[in-house]
Amino acid sequence: MVCTDARAAPFRVGRMDPITARLYLCTDARRDRGDFADFVDAAFAGGVDIIQLRDKTIDAAEELHYLEILHTVADRHARLWAVNDRADIAGLAGAPVFHVGQTDLPLPAARRLLGTAARIGLSTHTTAQVDAALTADNLDYFCVGPVWATPTKPGRAAVGTDLLRYAAAQSASAGTLRPWFAIGGIDLGNIGQVVDAGATRIVVVRAITDADDPTDAAERLLASLPPLG
Fold first, then answer.
1. Which of 106, 171, 182, 198 is the most exposed place for a label (fewest CB within 10 A)?
2. Do residues 180 and 141 make contact, with C-beta atoms less than 8 angstroms apart?
3. Has 84 been labeled as part of a binding site?
4. What residues does 123 pair with on adjacent strands?
5. Is-annotated flag, keyword Transmembrane helix (predicted)?
């Protein structure tokens, strides 16, 4: 069990919060390129609000190493960083944001392990899951998708933009401030469809990780999103 005395760092003045975040990036450790620190620095410089390290090919010690780098760079930009799936890693690293899938650690257990300071997110793929996420305890934000098929989630069926429209409508009718992000295959070529469906926040991977200029890619994606109401 992770000691609650070592849980996520409290939010400091000037630190981004998921409720005001619009652009969320998931990336691997980029070991093939050896540029992780420079890459996340460039992404934050372009306006990315949250960067999640998601790399199934690294062990726990390596993940903690890369998270230390991410933590340092994120603090320099007054932005957020996230851990995926592993609450033990999130607790040890002091991650401010932790994300789980539908079959991962239950939300109450994640909250008990990480404490009240951590911001916890959840993936949703159906209308029922969206409904549950809008009112769930121990949850701070959720993601809706994948909008389009993506190699980062092989075998996961795309949900299309209809589920985004549903999430937008249900969120508006509930009057909730809980933020939600569209995710899955989103890039500059299709972001207009995502915005038209009612999304104001997005999670991207390849749109920035594969870009020659991550800062420019982030700036262009952010400019394509509407301001938060």
1. 106
2. yes
3. yes
4. 143
5. no
- The answer to whether residue 11 sits within a structural domain is no
Is 152 known to sit in a ligand binding site? yes
Residue 85 annotated as binding site: yes
Nearest-CA neighbor of 77 among 142, 143, 12? Answer: 12
Domain membership flag for residue 197? yes
Helix axes 36-45, 60-77, angle to 10 degrees: 30
Q: Quote the pTM value.
A: 0.92
Find out whether 104 is annotated in a ligand binding site: yes
Q: Does the annotation flag 54 for ligand binding?
A: yes
Residue 41 marked ligand-binding: no
140 assigned ligand-binding residue: no
Q: Assign residue 60 the CATH number of its domain.
A: 3.20.20.70
Q: Enter the tokens of residue 41.
A: 């620095």
Q: Which residue has the tokens 């209809």?
A: 162
